[in-house]
Structures are given as structure tokens and as C-alpha cells.
Design goal:
mainly alpha; heme; EC 7.2.1.3; Cyt_b561/ferric_Rdtase_TM
Length: 225
Amino acid sequence: MTEKSEVRIRQRFYWLSNTIFHQVLAVTCGFIFYIFFKSHDLTSARFLHNFLASGAYIPLMAEGFILFTESNVWSLEANRSIKGWVHGALLSISVICASVGIIVEIIGKNKTSSPHFYTLHAKLGLASWIMCFTLVLSGLLTVYAAKLRNYVKPLYIKLFHEIVGLACFVTGVYSLYLGLPKWGFAMYVTASELTATKTLVIIVAVWSILGTCVSIFNNIKNVFT
């Protein structure tokens, strides 16, 4: 087998894996959202919080992360500039969804005089939400990194953006994971369905950040070389 043939086979494997990832992502989101739409009043604060806060991370932020991987099948023909704009749009919509979802929940708790942010699920969600704004700011800095090179190296800006994004996503998905056993979801599914959904969320989250972790590792090496 020639080296070129090995590259083609490896690339095809990456494309196939990426296609499987998108299928797993679609199944995970489809089932979670189906339960939300089926079981909740679509005008209720509970539905808006569950739907928007969940969708902010899976699929929106997950797709924003995997967009830059070379094997991402739906962006193969896009140049880096287009990918950058799509990435920014996905993350911006994600931040808006997370913000509305959390604000709706805060308003709802105020109306019922319920305590705020006392569970680990809520605390992690709040932490991720705060990091979302740092993520947006650092994303804007990466756009103008070349113009700011006299003040800070573009590599440092990119690395900071990636680390904040990774922390924001992991924290938010963990909050989502802890939220699934709550009454807004778990009471409408079987125990096996809940376990399967939690497992799929973990798979999607880990798969989404593999490329980012590799990029962070390489950029850290470049900082010290």
C-alpha cells in the first residue's frame, strides 16, 4: 500500500467518523428536544429554560467547536474565513440562547420566591454563562489579532480563546448532564432512556472537543518554542 493510499484511507475514516458524530448529535438532540416539546407547555418558563439552555451547548456550541476540524464533512469546501464567520455565528446564537434560557429561569424563581443557584447544576450553568461573555470577547480579539500583534502575540489570543471556550463548553455540558435527572426530563423517560441519553451527551461532548484539545496542546508547545 502506497503512502498516498494510506492517506486516502485515513481521510475516509475521518470523514466517516465525522458523519457518525453528526448522526449521534442529531439523535441526542432530537430525543432530548422531543421530550421537551412533548411534555412541556411551550410557553412555560420550564420549557424555555430547558430547550434554550440545552440547545445552546448541544448542538450549537458543539457544532461550533468541531467546525474547524479538517474532517468536518459539511464544511470541507469552506475556506477559513467562512468557517470563522460560521463559528462566530454559532457561538453568538449559543450565547443568546443560554442567556435567555437562564434569565427566564431566574425570573421564574423570583416569581415563586425560590432560591437561586443552590444546586451544582445551577452553579455550573451560571459559571458557564459568565464564561460565555469572555468567550465572545476573546473571539472578537482573535478577529483583530493581526492588528493587535504589537501589543500581544496572536498565538496568545488564540490560545486564551480556545481555553476559555473549552472551559465554557465542558462546564455547560456538565450542567446539562446534571440537569437531565431533574423533573423537566427524567420523569418523562424510562431509566434506560435516561442512562442512554446521558451516555450520548458524554460521547458528543468528548467528540466535539477533541480537535480543540489537540489545538490547545500544539499552541502551548508553540508558546515554549
